[in-house]
Amino acid sequence: MLMPARSTTTTSPVGPPGRAARFCLASMAAMVFITLPLAGCRSEEETDWHVDFIEPRLIRTEEGLEVVAGVDLDPSPAMLEALERGVSITFLVALRASSGEIWLPGLDERRRHRFRISYLPLSRHYQLDDLHNATRATYPRLNMLIQALREPRSWSIPLAPDETASLVRARIRLDRTRLPSPMRLPTWFEAQWHLDSDWLRLTPPDDPSDHAVGEANDR
């Protein structure tokens, strides 16, 4: 009596089902998460939002020195959205005066001046507070406020009678430390919240009637 032949199957030693597929998906996901931020950085670097001085100059006064300049501001979309949600945006004007070319933070006279932009939802107006001069103005449109910022305004560097300054550096930037607490850490990693100018070099004029114009920017 003939016995039916037994069929045998051979299995190759492979890992658990789906391991290769899961590995491929994980690799693709990692590539996406790496590529998207890099692409975002490239696109954001090409945008136009910025803040800088307009025609800066330095003048002598009886109290010391004054930096006079307009402000060229082009807010980012994230800033505009925050304003509409009631978040005030503060900018910091940092001034440093030294008696020589050597720039040591501990030996520089530092002055910090701020101005703040807010949206008033009840009146639908925009408000500009100059915290240095303690002045306030409101505008029906944001572009009118931005245009007003372009007008020359002054920031002082008081000096004692026996003090001298042969070089002044000025910089303007968005002050993220004045944002609401929940926003401060995330905005450090968002390009749309990094608005700052280069350090501007100004040489005080010898004659109080003369004006010193800003030189090349440096960091």
Task: Please tell me about this protein's structure.
The chain has 219 residues and is of the alpha+beta class. Helices cover 23% and strands 35% of the residues. The chain has one domain. The chain is built from four helices and eleven strands; from the N terminus they run H-E-E-H-E-E-E-E-H-E-E-H-E-E-E. The strands form two sheets. It has a seven-stranded antiparallel β-sheet with strand order 6-5-4-3-8-9-11. Strands 7-2-1-10 form a four-stranded antiparallel β-sheet. A hairpin with a 3-residue loop joins strand 1 and strand 2. It is globular and about 50 Å long.
Give a brief rundown of this model:
The protein is of the alpha+beta class.
Largest sheet: 7 strands, antiparallel
Give me the number of helical elements.
4
Tally of strands: 11
User: How confident is the prediction overall: mean pLDDT?
Assistant: 78
Task: Based on the model shown, name its key terms.
single chain; alpha+beta
Sequence-ordered SSE layout with sheet pairings:
Layout: H1 19-45, E1 50-60, E2 64-74, H2 77-84, E3 89-98, E4 109-120, E5 125-130, E6 135-139, H3 142-149, E7 153-158, E8 167-174, H4 181-187, E9 199-202, E10 212-213, E11 217-218
Antiparallel strand pairs: 1-2, 1-10, 2-7, 3-4, 3-8, 4-5, 5-6, 8-9, 9-11
